[in-house]
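R.M. (postdoc): so does anyone remember the format we settled on? I'll just put the structure tokens first.
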């Protein structure tokens, strides 16, 4: 995969509708997200996609063990989630079990291969992500997080 071209993200298509500062913030957040995804898929695992790695993490931590919940968390369709889980199951990372309370519901759990993958790759992934952030002091990171939290809250209000 190629490096992300920063210049593409800096062009404000509608300066009369959104300020350059607002556009640059949005562009930087998108670029940061894309770079982290590239790191995960290029440096950590050529075998799994970024979403598949996130699925394993969410199952392992108990955030979600139902495919419909995972689809909602990752903001993908249930059909796409079914495909991702099927590939993870085919490759031996997850297994589906029937829910005792509702036979229509399939609960997901990690296989030993899935557990081993998460255990071995998580530190490597966070090393790749943490190292570039180490040059930014904690106060700036806290300030950025507070700003992003406010923006996320404001955007979520638009969905209500």
């Amino acid at each position: 995969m190629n490096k992300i071209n920063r210049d593409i993200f800096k062009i404000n298509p509608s300066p009369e509708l959104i300020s350059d500062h607002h556009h640059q913030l949005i562009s930087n957040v998108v670029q940061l997200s894309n770079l982290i995804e590239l790191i995960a898929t290029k440096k950590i695992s050529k075998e799994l996609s970024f979403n598949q790695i996130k699925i394993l993490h969410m199952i392992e931590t108990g955030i979600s063990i139902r495919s419909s919940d995972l689809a909602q968390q990752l903001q993908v369709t249930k059909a796409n989630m079914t495909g991702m889980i099927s590939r993870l199951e085919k490759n031996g990372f997850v297994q589906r079990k029937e829910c005792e309370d509702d036979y229509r519901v399939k609960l997901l759990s990690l296989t030993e291969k899935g557990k081993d993958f998460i255990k071995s790759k998580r530190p490597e992934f966070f090393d790749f992500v943490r190292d570039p952030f180490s040059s930014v002091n904690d106060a700036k990171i806290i300030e950025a997080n507070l700003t992003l939290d406010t923006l996320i809250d404001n955007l979520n209000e638009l969905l209500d």
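R.M.: ...and that's the designed sequence above, right after the tokens. Also worth knowing: The two ends are 38 Å apart (CA to CA). The chain has a mean pLDDT of 82.
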